[in-house]
């Protein structure tokens, strides 16, 4: 795309499976935008978008890159009127490479918490952390923050990620299951997969993982006080580990939520046994 110099654009490192989509965020009000080193931002109407792209080779690996990206974002948000981070996306390469505590996702988690500044002390935002198949060293982190505070929502079917037991790494993942945005009219939903309690359910069984993911999404909507299901007002995003599974995922989503726009991308879930993860927005 020929938008490389425009700070409002991010060419995400996830390949669309099927029809590609451009996701566009609009606000009521004038929008300004700019760059500061590896960080780009745009803001207007009480909303801030900020993104950092960096390379692990410049920061000693996945932990160093995550720490660097989160430091830049934390410092920028701390000095901004939009100091409440509601939603954040993280894309890194070869997310499941490495064994035990050395798995690259776990290294990313260590660096993420190390780089999180005071703006994250009020609580973690909703998040997605996905493995891309572009240049392995590329880390992309982008967020949405607001002038007014939101409300974190956890899933009663799942252990909160920051309380995951030691087996998932030295530092548990730093994210909330969802955030209710300031006007209480939209639920921003984290990457949601077939995790029950803290354990992965239905290893290797795509159909069962999709059904479990749906139960998790339903539970989150109920917990957030939102109506059932997903409608035409906001896209759902499905991250699929095996490109050949895209059709099954698409058919499942169409059957469950026929009106919801769906973007299916090739993305690895941060636990090797998980095949699919879904995130999105729910308007009241
Ligand atoms: C899970 O429920 C699946 O590390 O930011 C989902 C959403 C997951 C966000 C993150 C991880 C993250 O634990 C993985």
UniProtKB/TrEMBL annotation:
<dbReference type="Pfam" id="PF21168">
    <property type="entry name" value="FkbO_Hyg5-like_N"/>
</dbReference>
<protein>
    <submittedName>
        <fullName>Pteridine-dependent deoxygenase</fullName>
    </submittedName>
</protein>
<dbReference type="InterPro" id="IPR049368">
    <property type="entry name" value="FkbO_Hyg5-like_N"/>
</dbReference>
<dbReference type="InterPro" id="IPR035959">
    <property type="entry name" value="RutC-like_sf"/>
</dbReference>
<feature type="domain" description="Chorismatase FkbO/Hyg5-like N-terminal">
    <location>
        <begin position="23"/>
        <end position="145"/>
    </location>
</feature>
